[in-house]
Amino acid sequence: MYVGTLSFDLLLGDVRSLKEKRSVVRPIVAELQRKFAVSVAEVDHMDLYRRTVIGLAVVSGDTGHLTDVLDRCERLVAGRPEVELLSVRRRLHGDDD
Which InterPro entries match (predicted)? Predict the structure, then answer.
């Protein structure tokens, strides 16, 4: 069994309130869940309205599949015009960890 995680540090565009922030973050989280069947949530900077960290986890029996899913998730978030991707942190955990 292998577990892969991604952590996206995002700067949000023209957002002036936490309500507007939710309207940007929720669709990204929902699309990742729907398209890739991953576990995903906003995990940091909940009190700041122009920054957020989205965390994502995937479990698979095959590292190739795991890497493919993580790559596609990263491309989806990087391609969103309403956010600027500041950094991505990727971790892979296997049975030996």
Answer: DUF503, TT1725-like_sf
